[in-house]
Amino acid sequence: MIRFKFRYMLKNKQTRLILLLTLCVSLLITLIGLGSYARYREGLDTDLNAPNVELLQINMDVTNRAFREADEKAVDLSYRPEMMSYLNAAASGKRTEAAEVQQLLASVAADKKVQSVTVADFADQSVVSSDFGYKAKWEEAPDASWTAWVQDIENRPLLIKRRWLGSEAGDSGTELLSIVRPVMADGKAAGAVIVNLDYDLFFSQMYTHLSSQQYVYNLDGELIYPKLNTGVQPSDMDAVIEELDVSPFSYVKVQGQEYMANQTFSDVTGWRLVSLVPMDHLLKNVKLARNMMLFLSLVSIIVGCSAIYYYNYAAFRPLRRIHQLLNPASGGSPQGNLYDLEPVIGKWVGEFQRRTFVAERSLPELRSKYIQDILNRCIGMKEVRTKWSHYFHDWSAGPLTVMVVSIDRYWQWAASFMEEDRMLLKYALQNIMEEVLAPAWRTVCITAKKDSFVVLLQSKDGAAGAGELRLDAEKLIETVNRHLKLSVSTAIGPEVQDIFALEQSYAAARKILAYRLYEGYGRMREHAAWDNHMNAGMEEAWSAEIIQALQTRDSSVNAVLVAKWASLIREHGVEPEQVYRAADHILEEILDITAARSMDPPEEINNYNWSQVQTMDLADIEQMLCQVTAKVAEQFQVHSHTKEYKRVQDMIQYMEEHMQENIGLQDIAAHVGMSVSSVSSMFKEQTGSTVYDYLTHLRIEKACELLTESNYKIASIASMVGYQNENSFIRVFRKIKAVTPGKFRESSKSANRYADPPKSRYSGIIEDS
After folding, report:
1. Least packed by Cβ within 10 Å: which of 173, 355, 566, 571?
2. Which residues cross the membrane (predicted)?
3. pLDDT of 44 higher than 50
């Protein structure tokens, strides 16, 4: 009966088709799973091996650089004449020569990386150290553990040893890295220079990765780094090194766990640098995917065989019915229907594709990009709603909060580090933010500007509110300052109920953060305390006085003006953004002046940009302005002694005295006894302006003074400043001041809450002095 059924099944076209589809599908799924696993392993070799090799190379360069610095000291000492005088000295003069050598060693040991420097005499076995001075015998020295290497020192041009100074257990001792250079005399080693480096400081510059373990071995196979036996034990590392041999890369197994091993060799120290990266967390997801695919293959086979069975079960029903009639005692079983294979396989394959898609996309990066697009208005309303539901499906519909974290005095801080170090510190800062806020808040952190981060927050359980967020923000400031030695300020925007209002909350937080100008650094802020505005006339008058005072070549005048401006700002609590703009305006003016006169800008603003002042408080801005104006005034003082400067000042004085007349370039040239072309080029070089433009601005400034302080008609004022045609005067005035003379007079006579109306360019300086 069974043989009959089997033959029938193979002859049936539908059965053969189902069997063929089952085998093909299962084989396809198996190949996809195994192929994906193989490709991932191949990509792993390329994508993960290269960064580990680069990290080893970086650490090798760091240790080589630190070693060269110490080795150069040892080599230099071994060739110093004082060293040979000490080694060749007789017993009676040994102590005198040793005193000079000790002074030399003490100067070398002043470097914080150098713990001590020792010089050993092989002839009479005396020793001199920067720590304990001269000892007639090695055994009398507090540090004599190096005497065990004497044989090696005499046979090698360089020796590097890791050793303990004090207790070998390390509880009360100091771990050192000793670099030994022999002092040669007549082709033999007469003594040795031993430079003892602080072990921790020497290796503190090495970069480490969270998931990797790094080891350093010397030429003798001794473990140099790390200090403590963490991770893979040294006994197991011997097998790893033996398996690596001289190959740069290999997969190794230690105590049943697989690692990716990389190594490199230093051509300076001869050290071997080895890194181990555990493969479990790297291959966890891909192994799961591979096993899922094999499981699906098995399921497809089972489903196919089930389909064949149930299909033929129905086909042989008449035979079974006859069998039951002939053998009523055998009984029977209920029948089933044919299973549909395609929906089952489609469901599993679709589930796998969805999980693979989610795994390949980095959700944190997508969230950060999404928030960045909202703040930059690069995304439409429909897309905002769609992506929110897709990227933030695990967030609730509760309120959202924006917090801005800014590095205080960013440009001063950034100038202290290389770009790579700044990136590492910012990465550490972001990790601290996420760690401090993680217990109570869902967070998404993005880099808004060079100096600041934006954090989107939502309470995890809905219980955390503004009070808890204030405490977390203060804790964040304290933690960053303690661990990174970095001052940051934070500002919290108002809560919003919808992601569409995120931009308004961010703008409010930025405005609140700007009050760092008054409150100082390392503070948490929630509300803006002031909202006053500086009068445009006051700002313009202050800028004009500063620029004019620069040319008086008296730095005390500038300091008084800056102090007066800062005091006025503090007194009235002017809106910070306006203060920043005012400071930016005067700094840009100073840069333009120095560029026009081919002077070097002060180093404080050598690479100046607008955001530099935005992370400073008012005291620092005041100090910077005082320093900048003092240096520019000093350059003006030097510049004022030139013959060209005096000629140009004579031209300016002539223009001021005759501006009411119809004078021109020829009249000015005749006054100073020079040609027209020489006057034009000299004036342009010294002032950065043409003669015509400078005369026009002199006339308009004088007109502004007359409009503010007198009741003359506009036609009369035009004549008094050298314009015979009133319309021409109005046209030029509006071009320069952006208002007509009549409007300017009205606005100048309006009440000013903060300061008197703008003074002329000749007043104020003497009064303030």
Report:
1. 571
2. 292-311
3. yes
